[in-house]
Each structure stands twice: as C-alpha cells, then as structure tokens.
Amino acid sequence: MLQTSRPRRSALYMPASNARAVDKARGLAVDVVILDIEDAVLPDQKATARDAAAVAVSAGGFGRRELAIRVNGLDTPWGEDDLAMAARVGPDVVLAPKVRSAADVQAYAGALASAPERTRLWVMIETVQSIFDLNAIATAAPRLGGFVMGINDLAREMGARQTPERTPFFAALALAVTAARAHGLVVLDGVHNEIDDLEALETVCRQGLDFGFDGKTLIHPSHLDICNRVFTPAPADVEWARAVIAAFDAPENVGKGALRVEGRLAERLHRDQARGLVAVADAIALAERD
User: Residue 34: pLDDT above 80?
Assistant: First the structure.
C-alpha cells in the first residue's frame, strides 16, 4: 500500500507504560496507535515505558492498525536508548519529537539505520524553527514518511493563544501540508485538548480536512468516532473520483489532458488525486469489514 493511501484518519496517543490502555487499543476503531514514551511518561518511568513499548510491538495483535512509537528526543538522556529499542523491534513508525532542521531528521534516520526498511520515520512539527525549514526537512532522509503537527509546543514557543478557530496557526498548518504534499508525505493534524467538547472537536476536524490533512492525532478514545467520520471520504466524492478515473482510462481519452466529467472539469492532476482518494476509501471499507 502506498505510504499516502493507507487510512490515517485517527492516530491515538497511548502511554506505553499503561498496559491496560495499550491492550484496549488493540480493539479500538483507530487507524494509528502511537505508543508514547515521551510527553505521556514521567522521567523516572522512561525506562519502564521503553521496555513496555518493546513488549507491545513484539506481542503484536494490533491487526490492521498502524503501530508507532513516539520516542524521546536525541537531546535527552533517553533518546538514544529509545531509538536503539525502536530499531530492534521495528514498529511501523517511529515518531521523533521537536525537530528543528533537516540535520535533526538525518540524526534520527541515522539512529534507525539498522531498523527494518518498512519502519518509517515521522517527525513532529512543533518548533518555530521547523516552520522555516519545512521543505528541507521533508527531503532530509529516505526513511522519512510523515509530519505530525504539535500545536501545543508550537503555541508555547510562539507565545500564541490557542483559540477555538486556531487562527494563529493557519500559516504553520498550511505550510506543513504544502511541504508534505510536495514530497509525498503523510501529514496529521495536532490534538484537540478539550476532551469533553465534542462539538469543538468536530469543528477542528473539519478545519483540518479543509487544510488537507490525512487525519488527526488524538488524546482520548472518545474522539475516535467523530474523527473517523469526518476524515472518511464522502460517498459522493468517491463516486466522482471513480468517474474521473474511468474517464481518463477510456481508450478514446488517451493523451487528453482535460475532460468534462459529469458536468465538471477534470484534469490529469484530478485523476491522480482521485486514485489516492479511492485507494483510501477502499482501504477503509476493507478495514470496516474486518
């Protein structure tokens, strides 16, 4: 499956040190499980959480869910050991925090040199420096597969208020999506902090969809239903996408750069977008039958 065609509507952070929560994640309707040994774990529990993450990955049982480990930074006392563990157990994704430059990405990729080839590196976009180096970050290492927004840390560094509209972060959100799309990377929106405000959650999910994010990171299982629903392609959009693909694949349209499809203009770029949309929709339908 292409890196950008796998469903990633919802990505749930779970403290790796909480065995009951990790076990529960194996049965949740979530696309990505992120075993967190960074922000969700106190300093004196880091080593225990690292061992627990390794056990969880080795035990498996997550089914079609993509499994990630968020490690501590290489500039911390735990980062080097975290990355050595991740390289050894080989999750689907290693999520690195607080990158600032392409050099940071290269350092993380270097630490994962012995990891299985399928293990992707995703990086948190949550520092002010990273916003000004997004294009270089996106091309820094072949193992790099995605961006994950960290609005809480970005707001702290900016000194910005986290308003319900997220207006202070429009530039960062748009630039991150643009850089990710330019280089074929996954890109996930940041978390919604107000656990019980589900109306606001739906609003920011729809905003993230409008920006072009593949999905959203979450901090509570109660957010899964809304997030999955919003980021699931609408049936009408999937139907039109299939029509676009069929039109360009028709023998009489070979070589044509633009077509009229059901009363709308479709260019070859729309065909490529349509293929991605249909691939995600088909993968979601398959997962929901399991």
Answer: yes
